[in-house]
Write a structure and sequence with these properties.
This is LysR family transcriptional regulator. The chain has 302 residues and is an alpha/beta fold. Helices cover 40% and strands 23% of the residues. The protein has 11 helices and 11 strands.
């Protein structure tokens, strides 16, 4: 017994005529009769009997027809899914992103993608860099900030995406905010600091910068999330560190303080693609949109 034999039998049972079934299946009548014969032999029972110019199912044939019809329905649904994916009429895309890309870059990209392909289901997961890396096996593409963690599977493609810079932030009435030329890490270290939680890309970058400079900062508070850092700075609890992108639409209560010299506080945002050797069509289109204008493009992921 083969799936083709069951699919043929489903059509014969539906139309009640071998000749009509052959026309519907674009097969010759002997080919259809041959498949029916082999199917009957595999069951060891007659599945139908001649009835005038057509056929009538036996009791066993009616039972087999139930399974054959279910197989045909599943087959048609699989064909519809295939055709939908080819035309981007359906599908799903699972995107993971750490705080900076999730909050300040991807909303615009995702909105444009959804407008182009409204039938593609989008599932967005955000968190700090460590949390996103831990979920790579459940994602189609992920965007992280800072250094790429060591030990990634060789099947995961790593692709630089955007440049970013981490800046210090202070209230507008803070002494550091009165220095338009920026401030040194040594000057910043004189004030209590508000840092992101361990596992954050910003936290790792800032900690490394202070370490390289031979400074031991005074950490007053650790908070999860960029907006929590901003609120604590507004409340006068210290100096924070955030992506420069997060300050683009900031109100007049906070000021960016560029660090001079930057001490390695410039970084790359990186795309990680867990299944780069077998990209789904939605993933391929989304990456093409993310890297639009980049000559190396998403094709470099393969």
């Amino acid at each position: 017994m083969t799936p083709d034999q069951l699919l043929t039998f489903a059509t014969v049972a539906e139309l009640g005529n071998i000749s009509h079934a052959a026309q519907a299946l674009h097969l010759s009548q002997p080919a259809v009769s041959g498949q029916l014969r082999l199917l009957q032999e595999s069951f060891g029972e007659p599945l139908y009997r001649r009835d005038g110019r057509g056929i009538r199912l036996t009791a066993v044939g009616e039972q087999v027809a139930v399974y054959a019809n279910k197989l045909r329905q599943d087959y048609r649904q699989a064909l519809a899914l295939r055709d939908g994916l080819r035309g981007m009429e359906t599908g799903a895309l699972r995107i993971g992103a750490s705080t900076t890309p999730a909050s300040y870059l991807l909303p615009y990209v995702i909105a444009e993608f959804h407008q182009r392909y409204p039938a593609v289901a989008l599932h967005i997961v955000d968190g700090n860099t460590s949390e996103i890396v831990a979920q790579l096996d459940r994602l189609d593409v992920a965007f992280i900030e800072g250094a790429v963690p060591p030990g990634l599977s060789p099947e995961i493609a790593v692709r630089p995406w955007r440049d970013d810079e981490v800046v210090a932030i202070a209230r507008v009435d803070h002494p550091l905010a009165q220095q338009p030329e920026g401030a040194s890490l040594q000057a910043i270290a004189e004030y209590p600091l508000i840092l992101r939680e361990p596992g954050s890309g910003v936290r790792a970058l800032v900690a490394r910068a202070f370490s390289v400079a031979g400074l031991t900062p005074r950490v007053a508070l650790e908070l999860a999330g960029v907006e929590s850092i901003k609120e604590a700075v507004r409340a006068g609890m210290g100096v924070g560190f955030v992506s420069a992108m997060s300050m683009r639409h900031e109100d007049a209560a906070l000021a960016s303080v560029r660090i001079d010299p930057p001490h390695g506080l410039k970084r790359l945002l990186t795309a990680l693609v867990p299944h780069a050797d077998a990209l789904s069509r939605p993933t391929e289109r989304f990456l093409a949109q993310c890297f639009a204008g980049d000559a190396s493009g998403p094709a470099a992921l393969r």
